[in-house]
Every structure is written in structure tokens, then in C-alpha cells.
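Regression check, histidyl-adenosine monophosphate case 439:
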Amino acid sequence: MIKKEKELKKKKVFQLVKGMKDILPEDQRYWDFVKKIVDQLALSHGFSKIETPLVEFTDLFVRTTGQTSDIVTKEMYSFIDQGGDHLALRPENTPGVVRAYLEHGFCNLPQPVKLFYFGPMFRHDKPQAGRFRQFWQFGFEVIGEKDAVMDAQVILLAYKIYQSVNLPSTIQINSIGCLSCRPAYEAELKDYLKKYKNKLSELSQERLSKNLLRILDSKEPEDLPIIVDAPQQIDFLCEDCRNHFMQVLEYLDELEVPYALNPTIVRGLDYYNRTTFEVWLLDEETSRQNALGGGGRYDGLAEVLGGQATPAVGFAGGVERLISQIKEKDLKVPESLKYEIFLAELGMEARKKALGLFENLVEAGIKVAENFSKSGLKPQLEMADRLGVKFTAILGQKEIVDNTLMIRDMENGIQEVVDFNKAVGEIKKRLEKSIVKDE
Ligand code: HAM
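Current build output:
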């Protein structure tokens, strides 16, 4: 082995932090596609975009997402900064959006205020399929309205995202009641589960005293037969919660959104009340573990943050999980930018002129590619071939002397020489003609 190779072998090449992912150029078209669908659907349903910082006070999440949630107790990237502030990388965006709503006096605007976002979240989760430590979410929050119609609209919007990409999905829905009707249910559930204490998984045994409802969404095989026969919250709902839930379902029936009543949808975040729901893939065993998205009502969150009582409902979907399904099922996604023409040059003088022509072509809206750093014509033409362009424009020494440009039709190999000063118009003309021919 030669010396340089040995040295390279010894050198540690930096790698990604565990659970983080690069979004590579070849994947950008998926991200653009999802972002475009989210933007279009959200804007057309009256939502405005909001971007909150990635960093918030740790306490924001402790008070809302909750001290009993896995997100806060085990998964939060929290730290003390140089000024002594206790901060966290946002594990989710609902608390940040409500903080912004309160901080900017959105309660004085006509209600409800509908906001949406698209951005990265951070959770120190166990990395595995569909779980990352930095992952992206899109989300919708409707703040300032308690009517069930808003729950239905948020669910519809969530459903439409997956419909738009032709991904078969279903809504799993439940109501977890409110502070007045939940305690009676929890007492009943505790009595029931205690009878099976020794048969429950270790995690569920721990949750008996700390986070009872979460036992219902346990994925441990030994818990499942016990959970199936557990008392259900919907049998314990107070009249208001029951009416609210019935209305949500009636709206969904009207909208023909397919849903399944699922008493185990309790969600892992502390702020929810009444409606809770998840979007699952239709007919997939892994749906339960890797929900495409989830949401629900959180009428008490604003008050916890020092605001007035402000009912709200929202949803967030995982972008990576959606994209992995789009890829797995080979769903249709627009191609990334397709170049129309390649601009090749030979020699210093030609390169100087080509730089200017390139800019003129870009300004004229022509999708032009180049490889100016390569000096020979051969590698440039090879690249033109690889890109599958319709034409290659060649600026060689002869063209410089004659003030011309050669345009080669890549399909039939015909080459034509045009006046350099009319190059942009000539190229445009040929591209337009070739589009008509393709149609
Ligand atoms: P969540 O269920 O914690 O809810 O997250 C929503 C979605 O984000 C999940 O269904 C999943 O698709 C994606 N997700 C969560 N964790 C990961 C991870 N480690 N790796 C990849 N994807 C992940 C919330 O975050 C709530 N803020 C939703 C909400 C909005 N509720 C009301 N408004």
C-alpha cells in the first residue's frame, strides 16, 4: 500500500450523528413534492404559514407535552446555554405555535387562527426504521375554536395529504374526554388493569402508577390481549364530550372520510383532550408503530402557557415516513429539474463568452446545464448525453472567430450554425418546436 493510502486509512472520516440524515440532491424532488402539496392544501383551506425557532425554553415542553410523556422524560435534546438559560431543540411544534399565538396577540384577531408549518423536530428516540433523531413534520393548528367542525376539517386536511399522493390511509379515531369525565374512566381502567398486573409487560407495570392511559397504546405482545377487553373511554364520556365526539364523526361521515373507532388511540402527549386521532397506512402491520401522523384537540394548552382558555385542535405528519411510503410504493412524483440544453465550450475565449450566454439563457427561462470546469469537449458532451438534453450548444474556437454558435440536435445529430447575437432566440425557437413535436 502506498504511503498516502495508508495515511488516509488511518484518518477518521467524519460521519453523521446517529439518528440524523442528510437529504441528498436525488431526494430533493420528494421533499419539494410533499412541501408543495402541504402548502397548496393548507393555503387553500385558509391556513397561514408560521415558522417558529428550533430552540425554545425547555419548560415550554415540560409544561405542555408533559412530564409523563416519553418525549419530555427520555427524548428531549435539552441544554443550558452560555447565558444559563435552559433550552431545548423542539421535539414537536404545537407548544411553540401556541406560544407564538399568545406572544403576538393572535387572540385579538378573528378566531379561529389557522396556522401551518413544515420543519425539523428533534427527539432522542431509538433510531430504527421510520424513527430518526432529526425528522421533519408538517402540521396544522386551528387555535380559538371549540366546535367539532374544526376537528373534522383538520382530520379532512390530514387525510387529503395522503390522498393527494395516492397513499391508501385510514383515520384511527378516539375521544379521551375531558378533565371532568376522564378521572372516573381512569379509576375503572386502573381497577381492571390491576387485576392483570403480573401479566402486563414491565413498561406497562411502570405506567400503572405514572401514565395509565399510555398502557392502552402499548405494543408489547403480552399486553395486547389484556388491552382488548379493557373498559373504553367512550363509555365514560360526559354529555358535552359525547356530543362533541358524535358531531366530529357525523362531519366525517358527511365528508366521506374513512375512519375506524379505536379506543387505544390515546396519544403520547399530555395536552390532549376529547378528539385524538392518527393516520395509519391501510392494511399494513407496522401501521400502529409507525403512524403516518397524529393529532387531536388540546383545549387546555394555551392556559398552561399563561394565556386565556383557548380551545384548539391540530395534526402533524412525519415527512420521512410519507416519503418512504411514496418510494416503497413507487408513487408518482414529478422529476427534478430536467435540463433542455447543454452549453459546451472549448478554450479560454469561448469559456468567457459562454459564461455570459449561460446567464442570458437562464434569464430567458431556459433550463441550461454546463460543465465549465472541464477543459475537453469530450467530457462535456458525455455529460450532455447523461443529462438527456434535447440540444447541445457548442462554442469552439471557430465559432468565436465567426461570432457564431453551433446548435446540435441530440436526437438526430443535425448541427446548425447560428449568429451568436441571436443565440437565445434561436435556441428558444428550437425548444418550442421540439415541444410541439413531443406533443
Ligand atoms: P406525534 O404523534 O408525536 O405528534 O408526531 C407526529 C408524527 O411525526 C408521527 O406520527 C410521525 O409520523 C412523526 N414522527 C414522530 N417522531 C418521529 C421520529 N422519531 N422519526 C420520524 N418521524 C417521527 C406531534 O408531534 C403533535 N405535535 C401533533 C399535533 C399537532 N397535535 C396537535 N397538533
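Comparison notes: The CA atoms of residues 167 and 329 lie 8 Å apart. The pocket of histidyl-adenosine monophosphate is lined by residues 92, 94, 123, 125, 130-132, 135, 137, 139, 141, 291-296, 298, 314-318, 320-321 (CB under 6 Å). No diff flagged against the previous build.
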